[in-house]
Write a structure and sequence with these properties.
By secondary structure, the protein is α/β, with parallel strands linked by helices. It contains eight helices and 13 strands. The strands form four sheets. The chain has a five-stranded parallel β-sheet, sandwiched between helices. The chain has a four-stranded antiparallel β-sheet with strand order 8-9-10-11, covered by helices on one side. The chain has a two-stranded antiparallel sheet with strand order 1-7.
Amino acid sequence: MVPMAPSDLLRADGSPLRVLVVDDEVNIAELISMALRYEGWQVEAAHTGIKAVNAAKDFRPDAVVLDMMLPDFDGLEVLRRMRSSDPDVPVLFLTARDAVEDRVAGLTAGGDDYVTKPFSLEEVVARLRALMRRAGAQQAQTSSVLTVGDLELDEDSHEVRRAGTEIMLTATEFELLRFLMRNPKRVLSKAQILDRVWNYDFGGQANVVELYISYLRKKVDTGRDPMIHTMRGAGYVLKPVA
């Protein structure tokens, strides 16, 4: 099971919200899924229309991110089939920038909102939040402090401490550590880190991740049992000291 961050939106029973991501481009589906898991939501992905319909029946999502163009049948048909068993599930369509007719058709067919490709992950998250609030998701009272082992990070005050000792970080170091701490024991690739910390359209090289990991290690791990580990060929992982 992939560790999830605390979310400020929950189901009525207090469990995490569920989002189904449907896109035939695997990389796009994975990027969206990663961003949504970062928000603390449970996510499943499907890459064809029929798999999306079947997943919706089993997963019972609270919202769906749905690409209009799929290899077997289009998003409108997926929407029609989903709504036959769950008439109220909010749907956020993904459409091509110049496909005005797709956007009109999607909204006319009952889609709740849309974003155009290329899109920012932040926009997808923001629109999903708005849809699920309107659908009745509960606002939760959550702590702003992330804790992994003896490492603590306060997302509100931006204070970081390990074993009670304050650690001073730059803004970028803080964002990198926050991403690692929101995904403890999960191996994060350089591409995932670049996307989340430096944004999807960052044009630099992956070695910037290595550089900032080294900065973090000097501040978080020097003189202590290490928490930040390199998984050769895979990425980086933050683990509490055993």
